[in-house]
Amino acid sequence: MRKSISVTFFSVVATLLVLGTAVMGCSEWVLFNRYFAQERYEALDSVAEVTRRAADYVVQQAALPKGEELDALSTKLEIIGESAEAYLFLTDEDGHVLITSNPAQLAEDAVPQALMARVGDEKPYHVLSTLDGVLTEKSYVSVRKMMDDNGTCSGYLFLCSSGARLTDFKEEFWSNFFFSACIMLLCASVLTSVLMRRLTDPLQKITEAAQRFGGGDLSVRVEGVEGEGEVVDLAHTFNQMAENIQSNDNSRGQFMGNIAHELRTPMTTIKGFIDGILDGTIPPDMQNHYLQLVSEETGRLARLIQNMLDLSKLEADQMKIEPAPIDFRELGEEVMKVFQYRAGEQQIELRVEMPPLPEMELDKLRVRQVLFNLIGNAVKFTCEGSVTLKAEYQPDHDGTCEFTFLVIDTGPGIAPEDQARLMEPFVQLSRIRGAAAGNSGTGLGLTISRRLIEKMGGTLWLKSEPGRGSVFGATLRHIRISKERKPAEPSEDKAPACGRASALSILIVDDVAMNLKVMKALCRKAGIEKIETALSGKEALALLEAHSFDLVLTDMWMPEMNGAALAGKIRADRRFQEMPILAVTADVEARDNFPLEFFNGVLLKPVTLEKIRKMLGSVQGMGV
Question: Which pTM does this prediction carry?
Answer without folding.
Answer: 0.49
